[in-house]
Amino acid sequence: QVHLVESGGGSVQSGGSLRLSCAATGHAHTRLDSYCFGWFRQAPGKEREGVSTINSNGSITTYADSVKGRFTISRDSAKNTLYLQMNSLKAADTAVYYCAAQKCQYLDASHRLRFIAYTYWGQGTQVTVSS
Question: 37, 49, 65, 97: which has the fewest Cβ within 10 Å?
Answer without folding.
Answer: 65
